Amino acid sequence: MLGSCWIRSRILASGNEIREALESSDDAAKIEAMETAIACLLAGEQLPSLFITIVRYVLPSENHQLQKLLLLYLETIEKTDDAGKLLPEMILICQNLRNNLQHPNEYIRGVTLRFISRIKEEELLEPFDSLCVPYSASPPIHRPSPHYSLSLTPVISNLEHRHSYVRKSAVLALDAICRLPRGDLLAPDAPEVVERLLANEQDLSTRRNAFRMLARHARDRAVAFLLANVERLPEWGDVLQMAALDLARRVCGADPAQKPRFMRVILALMQSRHTAVVYEAAVALVRLSSAPSAVRGAAATFVQLLNSQSDNNVKLIVLDRLEELKARHPDATRESLMGVLRALGTPDLDVRRKALGIALDLVDARAVEDAAGVLKKEVVRVAGAGADADRGGEYRAALVSALHALARRFPRVAGSVLAVLIMATNAALHATVVDRLVEAFPSIVAPRVAGAVLWILAEFCEERADLHRVIKLVREGVGALPAKSVLGASLAPSRPAVLADGSYATQTALPGSVVGASVSHISTPDTPGLRAALLAGDGFLAGIVAASLTKMLLRLHATRALSAPALHALTAELMLLVAGLLRLQKAAEAEEGEEEGAGAPPGARWALDEDARERLADCLRVMADEGGADEAAQAWLVETRDAYAALLREAAAAEAAEARRGRRGASCSRTTRSSAGTWGRSAAPREAAEPDEAEADVLRATRGGSSAAVVGSPQLTSSSAPNAAPASLATGARLSRVVQLTGFSDPLYAEAYVTVHQYDIVLDVAVTNRTEETLQSVTLELSTMGDLKLVERPASHTLAAGASARIRANIKVSSTETGAIFGNLVFEGTGYAERNVVVLNDIHIDILDYIVPASCSDAAFRAMWAEFEWENKVAVSTLLTDERAYLDHVVAATNMRCLTPASARAGDAGFLAANLYARSVFDEDALVNVAVERAADGKLSGFVRIRSKTQGIALSLGDKLILKQKGANAAAGSAPVAASA
């Protein structure tokens, strides 16, 4: 309260200082005082006592800056009383406005006309005509009412001013006056005068304003002028062309029968030299006509813009339009395939990815060879540029995936892309693939690539000669045995070394952590890449080598192509090789003591984990058991391939489901746009169903392509959702959005209707005066915590006894950090010495309102998991006894999508591990790993690990999960405490 009193006393002191400055003769002091007064108005203080002082001492001033500040002040102050009637003292400014409209300085005239264009009170405009002489250029016009026998002569007379700034401001003022409720009575002759001005005007901005004014208030005149000047339309300026395009859209939206008349206008605008006009004309062309020729013309225009503009944002917008056009007219847009592929020359990866996606959908049997040729050239070009140039690794992976998709859809081009894409997708190409892989294998250095190639060779080599060749290749790659680890080979005796300052020091040839050693540093011309990777401690690759040799040995045994002595000799040789890998582990363990004595760090030894050791041991047992070779062949050769085929089928089904979801989303979006008039064709004139294109863009931006979320109810959908809830459920959902802010015994009762959009939060606060007296200056004061920002301060209100008011506040959201909104209701009552404050309940913003389930590949998930540094580990604390039910509970609590397929979660092993993924509306990733184990007593234990690039998401999701666990346990009768680390 003391703070409020101090602020109010300071405002009063400031008001006195402003009055003294205004009454002085110093223009500089007056300017400063006017700026201070306007700042107080914007802060919510009206200072009504200053108005008469300003009228007396500022209104007669000839200073241009003072006149501009005066108009800003007049625009800001309250001009009406509580009943909506104009304050009597406002009549004092009418004479000054009339004088300014006839001022010899064009700047004074212009700013005054701008002020008039913002006036909403018609009573301020009525006295103009009685103060001025008639406008000679306008003929007498019959006026329907004697009370409104006005022609706004001072405003209209400025249409003939020599300066274009005054003329265009006068047109804007007439436009604003005509939009008033009784504007046609205030300026009945305005359309005729503006039409005459438009025919003779040369200034581009003035012509644009005049044309838009006619389009709003005299559409027939605007249409007649446009159709009469179609031939000269390409010569118009860009702003005037955009106004003409807007008129065409609105007329055709109101009356579809007018579309043929405006096709000439659209086609003429598509020849404009302004790219923005060309783009909008192409969009309007598709909207007006769905004929194949019109669609092809629009697609060609989009492609031309795509390849001619250098701005990546423009390219992405054009690609979005092409994608919408492709979804609506797939056959008519196929001719744009090669133009879309030319966009791959853009350095931006996002543009390349979107262009690739659109191009793959446009490819058909006739153009597949050309598309494959372009993609092959692009792969070769990127490979020559290096992996680090233009994020070449990611781009090259996208190109390879595109080639793979083409080869799967059109098998006849698989042979042509084989030189670039070494993948077995066609049984007729197996032999060629094997030959190419065998040739390339000795030059492979990357362990992951070597493992993948070994798996392919072991899986698809069927002939005896191929099997012998691959076995020989592996033996040469592994090298001579027994071998020593990199640590043992490089751990040389200590020897003196000369430092940079000339002193001696003892050094040990220890390469650091051997497990993480780079194969490129170990590999030499005498050490093949496969051997280098094994010596570097890659246990996973060792398991692949052993399993591949076992498969090929079993296949040779099944073919009966070798004699018994030859088969036994080969078996012994391969067993020696696998045993050598195990002995390498034993040798590394024996060397560990020597390493510690030489100063090696603990754990710096050959890393063969338990899984790899068990894999090597299984391979040795299968090779040694000659009697069970048939059963082993069934398990290793047949069942493993069946399992892999099932995995591929599941992946294809998941991909198809994802594609169906995408198409369904696009279809729903198109349906919404069609109902709104973006693409559709209405059978009756319904201008309301044809919103402006800018309004549709704003709607998509605020909703983000999805339904609006509600605080506390993340599952609620908007009314435009394709699967709308029943009316009763929708009513309950709307009621759940209401948050009570004050109590029933408070002088002011307030409740808020909270709606969370993509980037902002809208609070509709209903305030009711529960006292028996009038409360003045009722102000909603809000503050935020977190990444929330109040856009503007709500205005003050005066509430009579029992009256209500609706206050709206907009809050900007910049990230998914959990935030809160808190504040007060401040008011003044009769007899109160100081302001009263009612503290409001806090409104907490839920993170689930900003994250949506999403999908990503396993490789992308692992890469993000390794990259993200913020982790929150939540201990499992639940009364559920089924691990799959607990996983469903976590998915529902975090609003995420489970990436682990259902087949991997099947069975009754008592253990479950799954990955969850979601993205925020700000393109932030959220990763969750669930690891749950069922104990012997049936209780679940384990951890839920949450990772994110930002701390807020990880902590907020963890807190949300803990609350959900507590709520579920409390509902079941118990609530153990969950731990969070």
From TrEMBL:
Pfam families, A to Z: Adaptin_N, Coatamer_beta_C, Coatomer_b_Cpla
Annotated segments matching region Disordered: 659-695
Biased composition (Low complexity): 665-686
Superkingdom, natural source: Eukaryota
Membrane topology: Peripheral membrane protein
GO cellular component, one term: Golgi membrane
Molecular functions (GO terms): structural molecule activity
A Gene Ontology biological process term: intra-Golgi vesicle-mediated transport
InterPro entries found in the cross-reference section: ARM-like (IPR011989), ARM-type_fold (IPR016024), Clathrin/coatomer_adapt-like_N (IPR002553), Coatomer_bsu_C (IPR011710), COPB1 (IPR016460), COPB1_appendage_platform_dom (IPR029446)
Keywords assigned: Cytoplasm, Cytoplasmic vesicle, ER-Golgi transport, Golgi apparatus, Membrane, Protein transport, Repeat, Transport
Residue span(s) of domain Coatomer beta subunit C-terminal: 730-828
SUPFAM superfamilies: ARM repeat (SSF48371)
Domain Coatomer beta subunit appendage platform: start-end pairs: 834-961
Function, as annotated: The coatomer is a cytosolic protein complex that binds to dilysine motifs and reversibly associates with Golgi non-clathrin-coated vesicles, which further mediate biosynthetic protein transport from the ER, via the Golgi up to the trans Golgi network. Coatomer complex is required for budding from Golgi membranes, and is essential for the retrograde Golgi-to-ER transport of dilysine-tagged proteins.
This protein's name: Coatomer subunit beta
Organism: Prototheca wickerhamii
